[in-house]
Design brief:
383 residues, alpha/beta, Rossmann fold, 9-stranded parallel β-sheet, 5-stranded parallel β-sheet, 13 helices
């Protein structure tokens, strides 16, 4: 069986953590399966080879999608390609779409068009297409809605990560039997604390996000105030006798933000550039507290019961903090200096109400994630 893990990569640590989570479950539930990844600039050959993954041959370029040709290739050609570690769309038995956040108005309409074509071909040829928990929508473009209405029912399972995403899909396909709400599934994977991470209980990790000041963020207050707020919280961390540390969760874009934030300080802050997503999660779990602008950084903190102040450029953050019953820990970009400092002080000094809500939610959502994987297993077994 060939299982394609779609929408993952090796640069964004959240996407790579999702990959690690899925690989762990594939080995657990389908140990004889072969993993397939599509090559792209963020998923280079050497990284894929280290996983022993087959490469999916993509016959697509911009608007031109010729992947349907794969189904007409003779078996001897497809078998020959497999000897070189290459498979086509026609060889895939299961797609586990772990894109995280790739379908909606904030992304191009071409993604939806290609998705519709894949769902149609996969359904026709007996491949199970499963959307693992992810943010979906909003969808307001009429052509996108038309494509999704026609083709989403062809998916074996659609897991919306939170209520708003669930509603966005339900508004298009109604109360479909293949639509279910499940939380982010990286909550269950265990982090690994690297040897170099020492005295974490004296450190507060700051995880920035270039999207906070980019075009995808529609909140002008955040664009204007983001760097100043992060600087203020770093300075307050030092006043409280703790050490602020910058953790790059994404790559070049976030590295630039780290450098901008570090430029505010004469004594430069430590900047962590960790390539292993499990070690990134381990660092987060072994810190005093987190101030985070990356979604999976927030999940890694909350799922390990680490106090977390968050920022938001998308509805997925509001939904996440609501689920963990700590909406107050999502920063308002128009907050006063006193309010921000008080909030950080609450987090660092372990406000008992916040911790109780985080702890209970973390246990609940890990249990739900186990149920989600059992549902995925049952869908794959269906004929």
């Amino acid at each position: 069986m060939f299982i394609e893990i779609k929408g993952v990569q090796f640069v964004n640590k959240g996407a790579e953590l999702m990959l690690a989570s899925v690989v762990e479950r594939v080995k657990q539930y389908w140990p004889e399966a072969e993993i397939v990844l599509e090559g792209n600039p963020f998923s280079p050959y050497k990284s894929r080879a280290m996983l022993g993954a087959f490469q999916k041959l993509s016959l697509r370029k911009n608007v031109l999608d010729l992947n349907f040709i794969a189904y007409y290739l003779p078996n001897f050609i497809r078998n020959y390609l497999k000897k070189w570690g290459v498979v086509t769309e026609a060889d895939i038995d299961v797609v586990l779409d772990a894109a995280g956040f790739a379908y909606g108005d904030q992304w191009g309409a071409l993604k939806i068009k290609h998705l519709g074509g894949e769902l149609k071909r996969y359904k026709k040829n007996g491949c199970k297409y499963i959307f693992l928990p992810q943010a979906l929508g909003p969808f307001t473009r009429s052509e996108d809605i038309k494509v999704l209405k026609n083709h989403l029912p062809k998916a074996a399972l659609i897991c919306a990560r939170e209520q708003q995403s669930y509603d966005n899909i339900r508004d298009i396909i109604g109360d479909a039997s293949n639509l279910i709400q499940y939380p982010d599934f990286t909550n269950a994977v265990k982090g690994v604390v690297p040897d170099y991470w020492q005295d974490g209980d004296t450190k507060v990790c700051f995880i920035p996000n270039s999207n906070m000041i980019g075009d995808k963020n529609q909140n002008e207050s955040w664009k204007k105030n983001y760097l100043d707020i992060m600087k203020l919280l770093m300075e307050k961390t030092q006043e409280l006798g703790l050490v602020p540390v910058l953790l790059n969760h994404e790559g070049d874009g976030d590295r630039d933000i780290c450098e901008k934030l570090n430029s505010f300080f004469d004594n430069k802050l430590e900047v962590i550039e960790e390539s292993d997503p499990l070690k990134v999660k381990g660092i987060i779990g072994a810190s005093k507290a987190i101030v985070c602008s990356r979604f999976h950084g927030c999940v890694s903190a909350l799922s390990q019961s680490i106090p977390n102040l968050g920022t938001s450029w998308s509805h997925k953050y509001e939904q996440l903090f609501n689920e963990y019953i700590v909406p107050e820990l999502l920063i308002n970009p128009n907050s006063s200096k006193d309010d921000l400092e008080r909030l950080l002080d609450d987090v660092i000094n372990n406000n008992t109400e916040y911790l109780a809500n985080i702890n209970s939610s973390a246990k609940k959502f890990k249990a739900i994630t186990e149920d989600m994987w059992l549902t995925v297993c049952s869908k794959i077994k269906e004929r």
